[in-house]
Amino acid sequence: MSDHHDSDGWFDKPENISKMLKVFYVMCVLLVIADFIVHRHIYHSWENIPAFYAVYGFVGCSILVFIAKWMRTFLMRGEDYYDE
Question: pTM score, two decimals?
Answer without folding.
Answer: 0.59
